[in-house]
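Q: Convert this sequence to structure tokens.
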Amino acid sequence: MGMLLEVRGSLTIGRDDSAELTVPFEGVSRQHAELTVQAGATHLRDLGSTNGTAVNGAEISQVVLESGDRIQLGSVEFEFRIESRSRLAELRDRAQAQRLVSQLSPREREVALAIARGLKSAEIAALLHISTRTVNTHLEHIYERLQLRTRTALAGLVARSGLTP
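A:
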């Protein structure tokens, strides 16, 4: 599972609900670590956690992070990346599209991918060995679940999600 998080100022990471980034997993302390952005650099500091904080496999007390660094808090691992604002917006859009597409059943996903490939209902029916009526029923459910109205909107959503049509 992935998530995107923009860090501004400082951000505490820990198991406790009072942490700005709550990580409710075994091995993560209540207040485990802190990310701080200062003068264009992002610093990671361990907050005296029980299981320690590691970056790229090495235990740290404090370090300046570089894009691509792997952060480990207990059994949880993160990848730190520096992205432009436009790339961050693109990644957020993709993550949102993936969340929406993940709400579909496996069969609905197959129908959605076929729509993204530009297939008509009869072609999808033949491909999936179901009736055209069943394809259209799946489409109705997809539109309702994802709050979409057209094949074009569905195809665009599938494309933004990064799924290969």
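The chain has a mean pLDDT of 92.
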